[in-house]
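Design job #97: recover the sequence.
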């Protein structure tokens, strides 16, 4: 019987979570930039995750291809 109570409590907890907590995706992130239809590597929903870094020579940008439905990574930052 206790197991059923735990399952119910878990379900209530999941239902009370916000969309950001349960379904954060790349498209919700500040670092996500959609690729335009005119680009040679265009695919529907595809974008670049662009981030700024710094070393002893100065600032530089890195990007990696992602899709808007991909799950959020540790660098996720909610876009405004």
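Job complete. Output follows.
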């Amino acid at each position: 019987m206790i197991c059923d109570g735990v399952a119910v409590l878990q379900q209530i907890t999941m239902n009370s979570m916000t969309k950001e907590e349960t379904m954060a995706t790349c498209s919700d992130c500040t670092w996500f930039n959609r690729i335009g239809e005119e680009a040679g590597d265009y695919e529907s929903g595809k974008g670049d995750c662009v981030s700024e870094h710094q070393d002893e020579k100065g600032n530089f940008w890195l990007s990696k291809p992602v899709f808007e439905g991909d799950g959020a990574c540790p660098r996720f930052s909610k876009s405004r």
